[in-house]
Known about the structure:
This protein has eight helices and three strands. It is mainly alpha-helical and 303 residues long. The protein has two domains: 196 residues, Alpha-lytic protease prodomain-like (Up-down Bundle); 71 residues, Alpha-Beta Plaits. A three-stranded mixed beta sheet has the order 1-2-3. A hairpin with a 2-residue loop joins strand 1 and strand 2. Helix 2 packs antiparallel against helix 5.
Amino acid sequence: MSRDARGLRTALVITATFLGVEIAGGLLSGSVALLADAGHMATDVAALALALFALRVAGREPTASKTYGYRRTEILAALANGLVLVAISALVAIDAVGRIVQPPQVRGELMLVVAVAGLLANLASAVVLHAGHRHSLNVRGAFLHVVGDALGSVGAIVAAVLLMAFGWALADPIAALLITVLILVSAWRLVKESLDVLMEAAPGHVDMAALGREMRAVAGVVDVHDLHVWTLTSGYHAISAHVDVDETAHVPSVLRALQGLAQERFDLDHTTFQLEPRGATHEAEPCAACPAPPAPSSGPAVA
């Protein structure tokens, strides 16, 4: 099992174990911040399970119809997790606004105990997912769910302290709103990055203008056109291009130089270059499916 899979499985066990405790604590204390945190934790269980499933499916071998395999499954899971985060955050914000208008009675002591326990559980999950969140959008989606919960616990702790110290009932819904804003920002970034991959946008680390210039600077290259760069899945990028080369150039050497440039300078793993000799003449190949050209007209007969 990969490191990412182990991290996701461990975080799933921790989160699922604590979910019931947080829901009960939120209901008994009457805290919307705790219920908000419990709501995010419930989505965490689904998000972590989805991320773990996607990671396993993505490792399947390519087939005759899925020639790239199932790599994009991770991106679809990341997009789904991002959209769920947005939806849950919106629901929590609506509930929090309602509680600002009519603040409920909240048991601050119970709220504080549950929030501290929730924070410890979320931090444990975040630690095991941290290593993989930088190179995998799928793991990042799960990581953001867990971090969102940790922020929820911090907000609930602050609200509980303010409630116990000053009797400020508004601290609870205000904390929920602030947490929601932070989660929405991260969720939107995740959704945007996932959509960029699905739309086959150029990866953010690739300067397309610089890539074109450096390819044209390779010895034997005359010009580059139809240049495309995209991401197959997190950390796996591809490039294809038509490259005009001087007809006297050593084609294998040019190809090796282009592949080395793409992989070492721009982190592009999957390279496809069509080398086209500039100035070479090619005879048109016969086309059996093409209609025969019309016979030339003989013109009017002359007496």
